[in-house]
Amino acid sequence: QNARLVVPLASLKRLEVCRNRKSRTLAGASLGFLGGAIAGAMIGYAADEQGNDVAPEHAALLGAAPGAGLGVLIGAGIGSAMADERWQEVPLAEIRMNMTPNGHEGFAVFKSLAH
Question: Which residue has the higher pLDDT, 34 or 1?
Answer without folding.
Answer: 34
